[in-house]
Each structure stands twice: as structure tokens, then as C-alpha cells.
Amino acid sequence: MNPAAIAALSQSGVAVEVVEETGSTNADLLARAATLSGPLLLVARQQTAGRGRAGRSWLSSSEGSLTFSLAWHFAGGLPRLTGLPLAIGVALADTLERLGVQVGLKWPNDVLRDGDKLAGILIETQAASQGGVWAVIGIGLNLLMPDELEAQIGRSVASLPWLARMDRDELMAALLDGLAGALREFERAGFAAFAARWNLRHAWQGETVTVLDGGTVLHEGSAAGVDDAGRLLLDTPEGRITVLAGDVSLRVKGAE
């Protein structure tokens, strides 16, 4: 990938850097947050220590994955970022749809295709010296999934072989434009502007699900989408409840 080509193809005005290999693009941007003067996209051709939610590893291959992070400054405090991972999911889904791929969304931060995980989102924050916070939005997107990597992951995962044939600079520019546009919309209106679009793509709408935290069952019920704050709506025998937690897994009841 060529950073100058990505920047030229993009309408976002975001600076772009590409590195051959790094441990984690999120960690790299967090380490540089104090020196950043504007939004920055960092793409790694190979990422060796990618991270997912709750400290999990994100495994990827240089040929079959896109791994990148986008640093974005928000003037408000952390409460203003409520629902941001879900908004990023909508941005990815909207962009992929424009490229001819239909996907679903799983609360709080997964993009699914045919029920399998296609992309993951990890957002980390750091206080900004100029006030507000830097949000570092890390994304791993599967394009091709070699058998040996899928065996390492230990479960079926989705891929996008059709998009894998697309010019990578054009694909990255399209994703950057979608993300930058969504972030500007989020700055103006928060997650409420995305809630309806998220619910339209809710992969497990009406399914009986189990909400877990550290392996402990917190709730069971029927998944009913999200509210304007990005909280999961769960219909239980005791009535509808809302769930908002940073380290919660959502699984179809009975699934491994």
C-alpha cells in the first residue's frame, strides 16, 4: 500500500502513514498521541501483536487482512464517546455495502458476514494535552482467510475474497472516507444518529442470547437492538433491561 496514493484517493483530508510491520497500530498511535496535531491513519502491512477486546489477540495475515488504526481528537470528555464502537460498526457496514458487500452487526463491536466474524473494532483513549481526548480506533478486517490462520483462531471466520481483488489503496481510501465521515457525524450528533442504521443490521435481532462477563452469566433474554445511547436492549422474563458494559460478550444461547 502507498500512503500518498491512499491520501490522494481519499476525500477525508486525514494524514496517512503505512508501515511494513509493527506490533500494534493502536499501541503505536497511543504512544504518539501527545505529539499529534490532527487525525492520522496508520496502516500496517503486517501486525504481529494485534489486540482485540478484553486483552484478546487479533490474528491476521499480511496478504489476507487489513489492519489499521485511526487517531481522532474529540473535544469533549469520555462520556461523549458513548456508543462510538457501534457507530464505527455502522460506518464499516455502510462502506462495505457501497462496495457491494452486505454485513450484519453484533453488539458491541463486531462486524459479521453470514454469522461469522468479518471485522473487529478496538477503541482506546488517551487524554489530550490540548483538552478533550484522543480516540484510537483500531480495525482488523478479514479479506482472505488461509486455512492455517483459521486453524490458529480456532473457529470459523468470514472473509471477502471479492474485495481482496480490489486495489488495496482504493479500498483503504474508501474505508477511511467512510470512517472520517462517520466520526464527524458522531461529533455533531452522538450515537443517536446511528442507532436506527445499527438496528437495521442487527444480526441477532429477536434471538435468545446470553450476556457474559468474564465467563459469568449476567443476563439472558431476547436481543431487541440498541437504544440511542448504544445500550443493548434485552427482553427478559422480568421485562426489558438495558446493558452497557465494556467487557461483555454476547453469544447466541446454546452456541459454543
UniProtKB/TrEMBL annotation:
UniProt-listed PANTHER family: BIOTIN PROTEIN LIGASE, BIOTIN--PROTEIN LIGASE
Swiss-Prot/TrEMBL keywords: ATP-binding, Biotin, Ligase, Nucleotide-binding
Record's protein name: biotin--[biotin carboxyl-carrier protein] ligase
Entries under PROSITE patterns matching the protein: BPL_LPL_CATALYTIC
Entry-linked Pfam families: BPL_C, BPL_LplA_LipB
EC number of the protein: 6.3.4.15
Catalytic activity reported: biotin + L-lysyl-[protein] + ATP = N(6)-biotinyl-L-lysyl-[protein] + AMP + diphosphate + H(+)
Class of enzymatic activity (EC top level): ligase
One example GO MF annotation: biotin--[biotin carboxyl-carrier protein] ligase activity
Domain BPL/LPL catalytic: 1-187
NCBIfam families: birA_ligase
Superkingdom of origin organism: Bacteria
Coiled-coil regions, chain positions: none
